[in-house]
């Protein structure tokens, strides 16, 4: 794919960037370099290489969701400045 001035202008319009002529030329060169590099990667022989979505074999490294504090409602409510029954009493925030 050839990077043209029209393509750079179109990308600039899509991204709502106002590029100077110098910035357009630099972007044109940078995008061309990126495409040339990806073409080199396409030359690699990848037959027999398994597809992967992540370079590491970590499957599920999350901890188990275990309740540790239980139902200690009275202890929690003892810190409240005001309470109404078994709830915190707060200022009215919505009319």
Task: Please give the largest β-sheet.
Answer: 2 strands, antiparallel
Tell me, rounded to a whole number, the average pLDDT: 87
Radius of gyration, CA atoms, in whole angstroms: 30 Å
The percent range for helix content is 25-40%
**What order do the SSEs take from the amino end to the carboxyl end, as H and E?**
HHHEE
Spatial arrangement of strands, main beta sheet: 1-2
Terminal CA distance reads: 60 Å
Count the beta strands. Answer: 2
Basic shape: elongated
The percent range for strand residues is: under 5%
Poorly predicted runs: none
> How does the helix and strand content classify structurally?
mainly alpha
Q: What's the number of helices?
A: 3
Q: Could you describe the 3D structure shown?
A:
The chain has three helices and two strands. It has helices spanning 5-14, 21-42, 73-77, and strands spanning 83-84, 87-88. It is elongated and about 70 Å long.
Outline:
With 95 residues, the chain is mainly alpha-helical.
Feature tags:
3 helices; mainly alpha; two-stranded antiparallel sheet; 95 residues
Describe the SSE topology.
Layout: H1 5-14, H2 21-42, H3 73-77, E1 83-84, E2 87-88
């Amino acid at each position: 794919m050839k990077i043209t001035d029209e393509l750079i202008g179109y990308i600039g319009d899509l991204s709502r960037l106002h590029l100077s002529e110098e910035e357009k030329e630099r972007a044109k060169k940078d995008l061309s370099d990126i495409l040339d590099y990806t073409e080199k990667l396409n030359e690699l022989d990848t037959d027999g290489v398994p597809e992967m979505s992540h370079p590491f074999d970590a499957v599920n490294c999350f901890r188990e969701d275990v309740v540790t504090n239980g139902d200690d409602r009275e202890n929690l409510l003892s810190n409240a400045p005001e309470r109404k029954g078994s709830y915190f009493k707060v200022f009215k925030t919505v009319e």
